[in-house]
TrEMBL record:
GO terms of molecular function: heme binding; iron ion binding; monooxygenase activity; oxidoreductase activity, acting on paired donors, with incorporation or reduction of molecular oxygen
Family classification: Belongs to the cytochrome P450 family.
Superkingdom classification of source: Eukaryota
SUPFAM superfamilies for this protein: Cytochrome P450
Pfam family, one: p450
PANTHER family linked: CYTOCHROME P450, CYTOCHROME P450 FAMILY MEMBER
Cellular compartments annotated: Membrane
Gene Ontology cellular-component annotations: membrane
Major location category of this protein: membrane
Classification lineage: Eukaryota, Viridiplantae, Streptophyta, Embryophyta, Tracheophyta
Record-given protein name: Cytochrome P450
Assigned keywords, A-Z: Heme, Iron, Membrane, Metal-binding, Monooxygenase, Oxidoreductase, Transmembrane, Transmembrane helix
Amino acid sequence: MHSSLPYSFNRISHPTNLPPIKRERERDMVLTALISPALVQWSFLVCGSLGFVLLWQAAKLIDRLWWHPRRLERALRAEGLRGTSYRFLVGDVIDYERRSKEARSRSMPLRCHNIAPLVAPLLHDIVREHGKACICWFGPYPKVISDPEQTKEVMSNKFGHFEKLKFPALSRLLAGGVATYEGEQWVKHRRILNPAFHLEKLKLMMPAFSTCCQELVSRWTQSLGSDGTYEVDVCPEFQRLTGDVISRTAFGSNYAEGARIFQLQSEQTARILARVKKIIIPGYLSLPTRNNRRMSEINNEIESILLNLIGERMQAMQEGENTKNDLLGLMLESNMRGTDENGQCISGMTIDEVVEECKLFYFAGTETTSILLTWTMVILSMHPEWQDRAREEVLGLFGKNKIEYEGFGRLKTCR
């Protein structure tokens, strides 16, 4: 009996005579029995955590798109403001686009100055119904329309109560810079940029202004027909003019170097405006759609052009060339002064911030000024007698000489 016990024990502990497939099956069963409880516990834990995160994010999204706008609406109405009611996600965007499309389909009488129903028909109706102090909704964000004096008071407030709307993805694609900053960052950038707009600096820009205008007038003169007339679309002409002025005075380049930036920014603006209803959807600009990919390509190309322009100027400054005291020179000077020995920007603008400011000034400076000049030409064409008065005044003061800054103070009609 004792001699057979080890043999039986060895057979149980080391079943070497079992077929390989059966041994592997038994081993898998043992491993499954050991691992399954732990695996199930971890699965429940991971799924529970994931579910909690999703619920938390969903609650935040619902609060952002519904409860927060509703609280704002109640607070504004408690202050006596009236206007449209908030509608989930879209607000008044769909109505705004529909009314604008209807207004553009109608022609405006030539000498009509009542442009609000054509330019912003929905806002015009809201103000007419609820008064100047009223609200409308751009997606989940309320817009308060008021009279110019109240707007000036709010925008010049020194206590920081007015918070700017933040659209990080949209600002990145179009333009960021000082227009989107608040607090200390806004103060720092304004302090760096302000010297570029001092009166003495603006006086030094007069020759560049004069040169750009002379080139425009010369180009128009050469296009005159045999009868001494020439029909011209002044809007693109003034876009070129303002672009040339900004390129020369702010960035020390010329229109040819900035033309590609203007072209790309115009395309970017058109793409954004064509999809204004979708942009308010959270995360829409991050989707890999054909339009979003193209907008990202446009932004990358603009930044690449600006980085080349910045690199050339920085190299010239490091080689001892004058900073030219223009906008770009002031920004790069702040970057170089505020950079430590490790290449970290401590107090000045970073290169990324310089790029954003360049995008902003190329975009905002060109568009706003060219539209103002275009509308001025439209008004002058409607009132030829004012053309005659302005022409007589300018020729009487300056003759055919170059216009100088000191003579502006004597202008009355053209002031």
